[in-house]
Write a structure and sequence with these properties.
With about 180 residues, this protein is mainly alpha-helical. It has helices at about 1-40, 45-75, 80-105, 110-180.
Length: about 180
C-alpha cells in the first residue's frame, strides 16, 4: 500500500513538475525567436507576425509558470519553491526588458532595440534556462529518491508478508504435531 502511495505521489508531483518545466523551456525558445525576429525585421508585416508569435508564446509561458508554481506549492519542498520563485523573478525582468526593446523598435530605433535584446534580454534568457535546468535536475533527484522509497516500502512489505506466511506455516506444523 505504501509503495502504491509513493508511486502515486511520484507521478502526481515529480512528473507534473518535469512537464511544467519542459513546457516553460519550449515556450522560452519560442519567445526568443519571436523577440529576435521582432527587433531584427524592419518590415511591418514581419513585426506583426513576430509579435503575434510572441504573445502566444508568452501565454503558454504564463500558463506553464502557473502550473509550475502550483506543483511546487503542492510538493511543499522549500528548495523547489525557491527555484520557481527565482525563475519567475528572472522572467519578470526579461518581460520588462522585452517591453523596453519593443518600445524602441516601434519608434524605429532598431539598433537600440537589438542592443537591449542581445545585451540584456539574452543573458536573462540564459539565466532562466539554467534555472529551469537546475529545477529539472532537482525534480529528477526527487523522483529517484521517491522511487527508492517505494522500492524500500515494497521490500519491507514483502518481508512482513513472508514472516506472516512463515509464522502461519509454523503454527500449522505445531498444530499438526499437537493433534497427532
Amino acid at each position: 500500500r505504501g509503495a502504491e502511495e509513493q508511486a502515486s505521489r511520484l507521478e502526481r508531483e515529480s512528473v507534473a513538475l518535469l512537464d511544467a518545466a519542459n513546457a516553460m523551456r519550449v515556450s522560452q525558445l519560442g519567445e526568443a525567436v519571436a523577440i529576435r525576429d521582432f527587433v531584427s525585421l524592419a518590415d511591418v508585416n514581419s513585426q506583426k507576425e513576430a509579435l503575434r508569435a510572441l504573445k502566444a508564446s508568452e501565454q503558454r509561458y504564463a500558463d506553464s509558470t502557473a502550473a509550475l508554481e502550483g506543483v511546487a506549492a503542492m510538493m511543499g519542498n522549500a528548495a523547489i519553491v525557491d527555484q520557481v520563485a527565482a525563475v519567475k523573478a528572472a522572467s519578470k525582468k526579461q518581460h520588462d526588458k522585452v517591453q523596453q526593446a519593443f518600445e524602441q523598435a516601434e519608434m524605429a530605433e532598431y539598433q537600440q532595440a537589438q542592443s537591449i535584446v542581445y545585451s540584456e534580454v539574452r543573458p536573462l534568457q540564459a539565466t532562466i534556462a539554467a534555472s529551469l535546468e537546475e529545477l529539472v535536475v532537482h525534480a529528477r533527484k526527487l523522483a529517484v529518491e521517491r522511487a527508492h522509497e517505494a522500492r524500500t516500502d515494497a521490500m519491507a512489505s514483502e518481508r512482513r508478508l513472508l514472516a506472516a506466511l512463515a509464522a502461519a506455516l509454523l503454527i500449522g506444523v505445531l498444530a499438526t504435531i499437537a493433534i497427532t
